[in-house]
Amino acid sequence: MRIYETMFIIDPRLSEEEREALVEKVKSIITERVAGQIREVNRWGLRRLAYPIAHQSEGDYTVILFTADPANVNRLEEFYRVTPQIIRWQTFRREDLEKKEKKAAQTSNVEQRE
Question: What is the percentage of the chain residues whose pLDDT exceeds 70?
Fold first, then answer.
């Protein structure tokens, strides 16, 4: 299992309820199709975009931190591709967090032996 972070931007023309429902849908995709475990969900809300995307100058940002098997992460990317309400997304592996957890586990194992 690897640690991943996904950020996606939802079209701001949707209502707040529709945007929340889409975030819940992404969370269910991660837990059901990707077989991952969600660690953290950060809703940033409406933010100004660096450049216009789909004729929009704002977007609703969400960042989700999750663990999953690398073979299944592409299922999340496929969902993003076929969902027109999500105007941009990016998913990447958080090796820094994996290393930090591995180091903490090794330290705790050493302390338990002593």
Answer: 95
Count how many Cα atoms sit within 13 Å of the Cα of residue 17 in the half-sphere of its side chain: 0
The CATH number corresponding to 2-113 among 3.40.50.2300, 3.30.70.60, 2.40.50.100, 3.40.718.10 equals 3.30.70.60
Q: Which pLDDT score is estimated for 110?
A: 66
pLDDT band at 108 (very low <50, low <70, confident <90, very high): confident
> What is residue 87's predicted lDDT score, i.e. its pLDDT?
95
